[in-house]
Predict the structure.
Amino acid sequence: MHREKWASKIGFMLAAMGSAVGLGNIWRFSYVAGENGGGAFLILYLACILIIGIPLLLTEVSIGRQAQSDVVGSYQKLAPKKPWYLVGYLGVASAFLILGFYSVISGWSLYYFWNYLAGQLAVEPASGYQAAFGSFITNPFQPIFWHGLFMVMVIFIVLSGIKKGIEMANKVFMPTLAIILILLAIYSVSLDGAVEGLKFLFQPDWSVLQDPSVYIAALGQAFFSLSLGVGTMLTYGSYLSKQHRLPGATVGIGIMDTLFAIISGIVIFPAVFAFQIQPDAGPDLVFITLPEIFNQMPFGSVVGILFFLSLTLAAISSSISILEVPVAYFIRAMKWSRKQASIVTGLIMFGLGVLSSLGMGVLSGVTPIGDNNIMDSMDFIASNIFLPIGGLTMALFFGWYINKKEVFAATDLTNSRLRHVWYTLVRYLAPIGIIVIFLNAIGVL
Ligand code: TRP
């Protein structure tokens, strides 16, 4: 059957960057860095991206490009009749779980964007930003409407195809996103008292490194931010031809993803410190703390519009990459059309999102895992269990199962001086690193 391809290598690069740059860079990075002490966390995070993240990214993209198939089909093709492909199903399942909560938070972002545009959030709600956010996310209808609207956009882009949908959207979104974030960063740095925020982000306080949870947070964030372990990058790689060189491309994607996270940090922390607010507000940082800050700063309503526009664009370009994982699988395995696959898959994800949204309010008593609500449980299973298993499998597949010569050919590393460094990282360091965080995350270590 005919499989689509990217129109150009730059189209692939933008799409992969679009996948990587998302809520993870702006919303998740800022609160995880805030909670873990800033500068020292940033250095650990950079080390994780460089030593484990980028080598695994090259691995994941190469598996897809080599096999020219979806996450299940790729393993079946490269290791016929071997059980590796079972992990592909885990990837498809993770895609459902991740988009099942990611799209709800994206819906919140869309709601904020709309309300800043309409001028509703530019003035502080009578009850204050915190209570207004709380009553919005616990409402049984409102957030589901925005989540639904968000999913409609995501489904529409994916059903329009690789070139006309995904590649096109990213070609528009990514440059727009970069321009807006850079403008916001310049503005934020110009605020009185911004220096403290930059110090927090860039001046390491090494004492935080005594706490093992900082290491786990850094590796987990690197995985999430580079979209590793689900098969997103594998699926995107499968639309590439053999003639494109991969090592440089994956380093470029890793660097851009990191730059976007740092730029978001430069947008957020100087503003947080300029208004003397604590940086460790957690997941609420973007939805409560920032609006409070925007409310006090000159041109805050314009900043609010731009900030939530960029957050929404980043969320869309990541969500389409997550939806594409099961869509590619269903197109091949069930012989569905792209349109049918996108709509059916998107609707199921919408349904999961409804559950995680209701879990903030009327279903808040439902705690599938520990005392986590539905959304946090989905995040927990996907991020702490499925993603590490997916990433570990990819590392073992190329590091141990496929022979070395084929692996170098698949990654375009045959003539590279760095091939042995890469191989050692993928063969030993990545698996060990992943196993350590995995055991830690499930509470064994
Ligand atoms: N990387 C994206 C972000 O930072 C989210 C994302 C897209 C993702 N695809 C993924 C996360 C696959 C984990 C796995 O927001």
Notes: The radius of gyration is 21 Å. The mean pLDDT is 94. The chain is about 75% helix and 0% strand.
